[in-house]
Every structure is written in C-alpha cells, then in structure tokens.
Specification:
The chain has one domain (25-97). The radius of gyration is 20 Å and the shape is globular. It has a 3-stranded antiparallel sheet with strand order 2-1-3, sandwiched between helices. It has 3 helices and 3 strands. It is α+β, with helices and mostly antiparallel strands. It has helices at residues 2-21, 57-69, 87-94, and strands at 28-36, 41-49, 74-82.
Length: 101
C-alpha cells in the first residue's frame, strides 16, 4: 500500500512539473474572407480559434467553416493566423465581423 502511494505521488509530481514547464499557449486568431449567395454578400472577419485549430490553415479552415456555416456563410479564404498583437490593426477592417463567431 505504501509503495502505491509513493508511486502515485511521484506520478502526480512529475505530471505537475511537466504542466508547469510548458507555458500556456497564446491566444490564436485568424482573419478570413467569406460569402453568402443570392444576393451575393461578402465579408472580412477576425475569429478566435482554439489551440487545436491553430496548427495549420487546414485546421483553421475546418473550425471557421463550422462556425460561420451556421449562419449560411461559406469560407472563401484563410488569410493569416496570428496572435493577440495583430488584433488592433484588423479591428476596423473587420467591422461587425470582428470576433463575431
């Protein structure tokens, strides 16, 4: 019993050490272009994505399409993936679609 407790404590301590050694991932944002048809409407937007969708443009496309598709929008292009430092310069261009989805 004492051996199990020691093992569990060692396991918890090592997991905690690993968790603290890796800093939390920074926020991830993407700017994109989308459209709706009949009549044709276009928009440029900025969206915050989970870490799991920030690794590649393909992962970002999938996450964005799922969110904007609920309101009938079709993703045209992922323009860039960036951190919080790029938000201010894109806010006015995105207008109503700034962090909307």
């Amino acid at each position: 019993m004492k051996r199990r407790t020691s093992f569990r404590l060692a396991l918890v301590a090592s997991l905690l050490a690993v968790a603290l050694a890796h800093p939390a991932a920074a926020d991830c944002y993407v700017d994109y272009k989308a459209k709706q048809g009949n009549p044709l409407r276009l928009h440029y937007g900025v969206i915050k994505l989970p870490d799991s969708a920030c690794g590649s443009p393909a992962a970002a496309r999938s996450a964005i399409s799922a969110r904007i598709g609920k309101e009938g929008w079709t993703l045209l292009a992922v323009l860039s993936i960036f951190g919080p430092d790029g938000l201010a310069q894109r806010k006015s261009s995105a207008g109503a679609y700034y962090l909307r989805y």
